[in-house]
Amino acid sequence: MKQTVFIIGLGLIGGSLALGLKRNKDISIIGYDAQSQTLQTAQKIGVIDEMASHMEEGAALADVIIFATPVNETIRLMHEMSKWSLKKQVIVTDTGSTKKEIMKAALRLKEMGITFIGGHPMAGSHKSGVEAARAHLFENAFYMLTPFENENKKEVKILFDILQVTKAKVVQVNAVEHDHMTAVVSHFPHLVAASLVHQLAGENEQFPFTKQLASGGFRDLTRIASANPIMWRDITLQNRKELSNQLHMWTEEMNKLQNLLLHGEADEIETYFSKAKQVRDELPITTQGAMFSVFDLYVDVPDYPGVISEITGYLAKGDISITNLRIVETREDIFGILVVSFQTMDDRAKAVKCIANNTTFETYIS
Ligand SMILES: NC(=O)c1ccc[n+]([C@@H]2O[C@H](COP(=O)([O-])OP(=O)(O)OC[C@H]3O[C@@H](n4cnc5c(N)ncnc54)[C@H](O)[C@@H]3O)[C@@H](O)[C@H]2O)c1
Ligand SMILES: O=C(O)C(=O)C[C@]1(C(=O)O)C=C[C@@H](O)C=C1
């Protein structure tokens, strides 16, 4: 059955969803973005099938409406939506990183008989904008749905089926639990990353060389601080209660560490690091083989048969030896899924050029 999906906000997430959903030939995508340049680019590079000249126009034609806008803007638009004319059976969803406030705003839609199912794909990047959109962004990532409890079972199933083509692992959670869990693994780490960068910036006057020394560790820890500030302003404001609790716990943890250091408690410090290492090493991502050695290269490739031999073929032609090759089956904190290892840094640098010359796949060095 043909379905029309209307996506509002064609940035990294809206654009990636459009590309992912378009793999299903029965889905046609109408798009809208507040930035006319973005809307035109989305049409030009084939992210959407059709442009809506304004939101109500696209909404009236849609079987599914997806808000992929910053979360405060999504709430504002959900209020406006109550004035739009929509298809009777329309399913409305979003991609926002917070869910409690969004579901609160959805109560008004519910009273009007409009089905709203909260959504949040746990995959993304510090990049934003339609140019960064990728059809395969959600492959193997968790995609959380937060319907109203015990309601809309039929519509949840329809949305679940539509999302299957993105190859995400679609799961249902409750909005309050969602905001607690994402505070721990996503929102609070963002505060920490930003604060570490500020701490480095504070060194600039007296020790300007410090920032040049920021290599692997600092860069790994702070990559996410390069993300869109407006998006993160909205997320952290909406989830501020959870973040305040996390901050409180973190402060206690830091005080505990400070004490151990001040008293030179060598054994306890070692135990502290050992426990952290154990938990970190047991995270799904590392058991799935994502550990990297010094000369690993992450190649952001779509999941289709033959893609590995395509890459290794180009490297062989370029006379570049590889020492290992593996697939990372999650996109939760790194971009590429194909990890190619090299014996030397020089080989890896040659591989970056070789892949850029022969493909459009992006490469990353963790
Ligand atoms: N970036 C991530 O890693 C990530 C991951 C999962 C979910 N999310 C969530 O998805 C949503 C979108 O994030 P993104 O990374 O795609 O951001 P983005 O900045 O790449 O894109 C947002 C787009 O929304 C448009 N927009 C803003 N206000 C609008 C309005 N009133 N009407 C129409 N368009 C409007 C912007 O012009 C922009 O093109 C956010 O709610 C975010 O919390 C982000
Ligand atoms: O990989 C990144 O850069 C992200 O920040 C992605 C990330 C995350 O924290 O994991 C960020 C916010 C989203 O709501 C979901 C995913």
From TrEMBL:
GO molecular function, one term: NAD+ binding
Sequence ranges assigned to domain ACT in this UniProt record: 296-366
GO biological process, one term: tyrosine biosynthetic process
CDD domains: ACT_PDH-BS
Record SUPFAM superfamilies: 6-phosphogluconate dehydrogenase C-terminal domain-like (SSF48179), ACT-like (SSF55021), NAD(P)-binding Rossmann-fold domains (SSF51735)
Top-level lineage group: Bacteria
Pfam families reported in the protein's UniProt record: PDH_C, PDH_N
Keyword annotations from UniProtKB, A to Z: Amino-acid biosynthesis, Aromatic amino acid biosynthesis, NAD, Oxidoreductase, Tyrosine biosynthesis
Enzyme Commission code(s) on record: 1.3.1.12
Domain Prephenate/arogenate dehydrogenase stretches: 3-291
Pathway in which this enzyme or protein is active: Amino-acid biosynthesis; L-tyrosine biosynthesis; (4-hydroxyphenyl)pyruvate from prephenate (NAD(+) route): step 1/1
Catalyzed reactions per annotation: prephenate + NAD(+) = 3-(4-hydroxyphenyl)pyruvate + CO2 + NADH
NCBIfam families named among the record's database cross-references: PRK06545.1-5
Family: Belongs to the prephenate/arogenate dehydrogenase family.
PANTHER family cross-referenced by the UniProt entry: PREPHENATE DEHYDROGENASE (PTHR21363), PREPHENATE DEHYDROGENASE [NADP(+)] (PTHR21363:SF0)
Name of the protein: Prephenate dehydrogenase
Origin species: Psychrobacillus glaciei
Lineage of producing organism: Bacteria, Bacillati, Bacillota, Bacilli, Bacillales
